[in-house]
Write a structure and sequence with these properties.
The complex is a heterodimer.
Chain A: H1 2-9, H2 17-29, H3 32-36, E1 49-52, E2 55-58, H4 75-84, H5 99-102, H6 107-117, H7 141-149, H8 163-173, H9 179-182, E3 200-202, E4 205-207, H10 223-232, H11 243-250, H12 257-267, H13 286-303, H14 321-324, H15 329-337, E5 339-340, E6 352-353, H16 362-374, H17 385-397
Chain B: E1 3-4, E2 8-13, H1 17-28, E3 33-36, H2 44-47, H3 56-61, E4 74-77, E5 85-86, H4 102-105, H5 120-128, H6 146-160, E6 168-169, E7 172-173, H7 197-208, E8 214-215, E9 225-226, E10 232-233, H8 255-258, H9 260-263, E11 269-272, E12 276-282, E13 289-295, E14 301-311, H10 315-324, E15 342-345, E16 348-355, E17 374-376, E18 395-399, H11 422-431, E19 435-436, E20 442-444, E21 453-461, E22 467-472, H12 477-496, E23 501-505, E24 522-524, E25 548-550, H13 565-583
Parallel strand pairs in B: 1-14, 2-3, 2-14, 3-11, 4-22, 14-25
Antiparallel strand pairs in B: 4-5, 6-7, 8-17, 9-10, 12-13, 13-14, 15-24, 16-19, 16-20, 16-23, 17-18, 18-20, 21-22
Classes of the chains: A mainly alpha, B alpha+beta.
Chain lengths: 400, 593
């Protein structure tokens, strides 16, 4: 496809098949389509509203259309946008465009992505990108933001780490921009210094801790488990759902096993935060007793009585980072509203969790969550009925 | 005038087991495939969540998963001297609806037929002589052999993850399995399910009586399984909500749990649900299908041109659609002419209830699965000498009690108990946990007869003004004799389990369309070796219209003493392979008439 449409366009230089193929691959690793392709829309024609903590940003058209896309951009214009966050007209991009991470990509890789984007069909789709309220609508504000939170510059390999580790670091910190969701943010939406990949709540989900913390992170996962999760959306412990399902669909399922293993190698080398695990809520706590009874009735058929689930099908709750994260946003949401796991070519089943918001009240949901967060060796703070009520409200309002 | 859609390579009518298999196989061969399904889209996640899937009132009593008689029905009579009347509520068999078809609501008993079942006429004639068979019995050989089908039984079982114990591995009899089964090329993909108390007790009693009990082959899986398409299934939780229900735990083999997730990833496959096919269209020669016509839920009529048509609906509707499309000649029982509607059959089911001392036996019937059970096969097919008995055919029998659902078991009381009131309540209380009550304890064959057939009703029409299919069906002496013999043996085994009292419930004539037996209707467009005595060749290809293939139990020339789905699946894979490897290279008849 890429080659055929590239040939048909015929007015671009550098019609190098290898470069275009590499660009297609890197565009997938960077999940460009995640924001720039609307579900059911034309590839890379933009127009997708992207939620940020400060409001909605509409993704622009990055097809080669000369009027509404980036057809008139030079290679340098493109590199500047990707690595410095500056548009062709000199205006600053909002960091919803993850240039904070893309800046780590090599110029060669960025140009390969450009070469690929040159080959996709041009789509006439004018997008009004600026919809943030004042004063955020003033893009020059971003220059000040950049000074505080943006460190431009290509990835520099760490000499005492091997090539695989460095490849993983290059991808995770750069094109894959994992930190965009998984790194805690400060009040201004910048990455919190010193807490990379330690988990963050956004869009009604909690993007879990990706460090090797045994309880809240991926300490119990092997590199193979991680690579399988990214490739297929499933592994013996867990399944991708919510925003991560989109990432698996558009991005990680299309990456090579070697790159995914490199990613896993790097992530398995991330030190956990130096925080003590909380004391588990006592089994004699009334919420735990109530939760255990609800679990036996409603949950144990799939997740099994010992909380271990069924590999590749029903996630394990015992030892699960999603279950034990200090912020229970994802777990609350999944129990209230249900969710479906991602389908991929290698794992097409896509089993789903039913919604229990209609059959369990706030106290019951809180109890069963408290139970699964503290049974089978798990430990996490108690969830209150008030927590459930708040999430129920924001789900009903569509905030999540 | 219907609006015309862009042509497709393949139009599939019905997205149940066979429609899903054919769709997958033909899309996998690179063809552009559309499946048109009368009922709704259904999937496990949205349609059978564990939070409400086990709802007996909704599914068992109110038939949520089935067609509505107001949508389509049939008329019924026992014989040509009667006037057929419309069936207004499903009784003797259930009629599935929607994606997955009957594969959603089945119990998942996944049997193979015996090698002799495929050559039943020549086999019985050779062993007992032609005069041993009743004059009006019209049984036939299938035109395909067990050995030819074995690799396709294997494919279907490995698609489903079937749980069982092999009885015959490449000719070597295996302990614990069914010693009468045909040779299988490899073991079942997963081990047999664990058996509850009463099922275990049945096996013990049967063994003591000299029989060789074995676990029923089950599509409710004993353990998690990943099938060759990469689809994952979970282990059965023995909840006892299988037949009439969708499985919430991804553990009952169905199109949803084995094939649809992989099929839907194929860009060259499309499904149109809530669209009812009204006709298979033919060109002027009448020898070539040009596609299908269907009506969507808004009442709009569409024509879908296609190079190949796969008729994959339920048996009754397949036969009706052939008749309404003018394909082949409608069977006339008076002359014996015509193939469409001929050799219609069902099944001969009975049971015996065992009542045990409640102070000693608590069977806890709630622990079960649809295809749980310990069975014996000594009295199936021609596994025993029929000479002294004066009948042919047989069946398996076993403790195959699949649930302890309370609405279903209101008649699990000793004969003579009132049907309601204080005495009934007391009898229920006394017996509920200590009764052996398998709905299909004796699962017998039903052979075909000149008089049993389907045609079009002269009076009653459906909502499109098309004649309803008319069923003329009765039990014959042979089946009733066979059933009485088997029910007696079954009752002896239940007695040997230690029952205080055994109530036999043998099948009696006339055939009753209101009493549930099984949903195993078969025949009406049967396969065979020549067009004079069959509608389809051995690859399920229509003799009359070679670009039409008719799938499913519609092709069975008579019914064997087993549940049909294993054979339906095997035939679908067998047919798909012939289409892929022979028909696509050289479209036309695969067998010379």
């Amino acid at each position: 496809m890429a080659l055929a449409s590239g040939v048909a366009l015929g007015d671009n230089t550098g019609q190098d098949f290898s470069q275009i193929e590499r660009g297609r691959y890197l565009a997938a690793a960077g999940d460009c389509a995640g924001c720039h392709t609307k579900p059911g829309g034309k590839n890379f024609a933009g127009g997708l509203p992207v939620a940020t903590p400060f409001g909605i940003v509409i993704s622009p058209n990055i097809t080669p259309d000369r009027e509404t896309g980036i057809g008139l951009w030079s290679n340098d214009d493109f590199v500047r946008a990707m690595t410095e966050g500056i548009r062709r007209d000199g205006a600053n991009l909002y960091p919803a465009m993850p240039y904070v991470y893309y800046t780590k990509a090599t110029r060669d890789d960025v140009l390969a992505i450009r070469a690929y984007l040159n080959t996709v069909p041009a789509v006439d789709n004018g997008v009004k990108a600026d919809q943030l309220p004042f004063p955020l609508s003033v893009r020059t504000d971003m220059a000040a933001w950049n000074k505080l939170y943006f460190t431009p510059g290509e990835f520099q390999p760490i000499s005492n780490k091997n090539a695989e580790w460095n490849r993983g670091a290059y991808l995770v910190e750069g094109l894959m921009h994992c930190g965009a969701c998984h790194t805690p943010k400060n009040f201004a939406g910048g990455d919190e210094k010193g807490r990379p990949l330690q988990g963050y709540a956004l869009q009604g989900w909690f993007a879990p801790d990706l460090t090797t913390d045994d309880r809240r992170g991926i300490g119990s996962w092997s590199a193979g488990d991680l690579a399988a999760y990214l490739k297929t959306g499933h592994n013996r412990f867990s399944a991708a759902t919510g925003p991560m399902a989109d990432v698996v669909t558009h991005s990680t399922s299309k990456m090579t096993d070697a790159d995914l293993h490199a990613v896993a190698t790097y992530l398995k080398d991330q030190a956990p935060p130096n925080e003590k695990a909380p004391q588990p809520v006592a089994a004699s706590d009334p919420a735990m007793k109530m939760g255990a009874a609800i679990y036996a009735d409603e949950c144990s058929a799939c997740h099994t009585p010992n909380g271990k689930g069924i590999a590749n099908l029903f996630p394990s709750l015992a030892g699960s980072p999603n279950v034990q994260s200090t912020d229970p946003t994802s777990a609350i949401r999944i129990v209230l509203a249900g969710t479906q796991s991602v389908a991929t070519d290698r794992a097409p089943t896509a089993p789903a969790m039913p919604a229990f918001g209609d059959t369990l009240d706030n106290r019951e949901v809180a109890a069963v969550l408290t139970y699964i967060r503290n049974a089978w060796g798990n430990a996490a703070p108690l969830v209150s009925a008030g927590d459930i009520a708040r999430h129920r409200d924001s789900l009903a309002k569509g905030d999540e | 005038m219907p609006q015309k859609l862009p042509p497709k390579d393949v139009a599939i009518i019905g997205l149940g087991w066979t429609g899903s298999i054919l769709a997958y196989e033909l899309a996998d061969a690179g063809l552009d495939v559309v499946a048109v399904e009368r009922g709704p889209w259904r999937d496990t996640a949205t349609d059978f969540p564990p939070s409400y899937a086990p709802d007996e009132l909704r599914y068992r009593i109110r038939h949520e998963l089935f067609l509505r008689p107001a949508q389509v029905s049939l008329t019924f009579r026992n014989n040509a001297n009667q006037t057929a009347l419309p069936v207004r509520d499903w009784g003797a068999f259930m009629l599935g609806n929607g994606a997955g078809g009957a594969g959603v609501h089945w119990n998942a008993e996944t049997w193979r037929f015996l090698p002799s079942d495929f050559v039943v006429k020549s086999h019985l004639t050779q062993r007992y002589g032609a005069k041993f068979l009743p004059d009006d019995m019209t049984i036939q050989d299938w035109g395909v052999s067990y050995d030819e089908l074995e690799p396709y039984y294997d494919r279907f079982e490995y698609l489903c993850g079937t749980s069982g114990t092999a009885g015959n591995l490449k000719g070597s009899i295996q302990p614990g399995g069914n010693p009468f089964e045909g040779p299988r090329s490899r073991p079942y993909p997963t081990p047999a399910q664990r058996q509850p108390f009463s099922h275990t007790l049945f096996a013990k009693a049967a063994a003591e009586l000299g029989y060789k009990p074995f676990p029923q082959p089950s599509g409710n899986l004993s353990r998690a399984y990943t099938n060759p398409l990469g689809v994952e299934m979970g282990p059965c939780t023995y909840c006892g909500f299988c037949e009439w229900f969708g499985c919430a735990n991804y553990s009952k083999a169905s199109p949803q749990t084995t094939i649809l997730p992989a099929l839907f990833r194929k860009p060259n496959f499309t499904a149109r649900t809530d669209c009812e096919v009204t006709k298979i269209n033919l060109d002027r020669s009448g020898k070539h299908a040009t596609g299908i016509t269907f009506v969507d839920s808004s009442g709009e009529e569409w024509e879908q041109p296609a190079e190949l048509v796969m008729l994959c609906g339920f048996q009754l509707w397949n036969v009706q659609l052939l008749m309404l499309s003018g394909i082949g000649q409608i069977y006339d029982p008076n002359t014996g002419e015509g193939q469409i509607g001929r050799n219609f059959s069902h099944q001969t089911i009975s049971t015996a209830l065992g009542f045990f001392d409640k102070s000693k036996f608590n069977f806890n019937p709630f622990i079960a699965s649809g295809a749980i059970g310990m069975c014996i096969d000594e009295f199936n097919g021609d596994n025993f000498d029929h000479g002294p008995h004066g009948f042919v055919g047989g069946g398996y029998m076993g403790q195959v009690q699949s649930n302890g659902r309370p609405m279903e078991f209101t008649d699990a009381v000793p004969a003579g108990t009132p049907a309601w009131g204080a005495k009934w309540k007391q009898a229920m209380r006394d017996n509920y946990l200590s009764t052996v009550y398998a709905g299909t304890g004796v699962h017998g064959s039903c052979y075909s007869y000149r008089q049993n057939h389907l045609d079009l009703d002269p009076t009653y029409k459906d909502r499109f003004g098309r004649p309803l299919v008319r069923m003329t069906m009765d039990f014959h002496e042979n089946e009733l004799k066979m059933n009485a013999f088997l029910t007696d043996i079954y009752a002896e085994i239940i007695k040997a389990m230690g029952a205080n009292r055994v109530d036999k419930r043998p099948r009696k004539g006339p055939y009753d369309v209101t009493k549930y037996q099984t949903s195993h209707l078969c025949g009406g467009a049967i396969m065979g070796s020549n067009p004079k005595e069959s509608a389809l060749n051995k690859y399920l290809q229509s003799w009359d219209v070679p670009n039409l293939f008719v799938q499913g139990a519609t092709a069975f020339p008579q019914n064997a003493g087993y549940n049909p789905t294993g054979t339906v699946g095997a035939l679908a894979y067998w047919s798909a392979k012939a289409i892929r490897e022979q028909y696509l290279k050289s479209p036309g008849p695969l067998v010379d008439a």
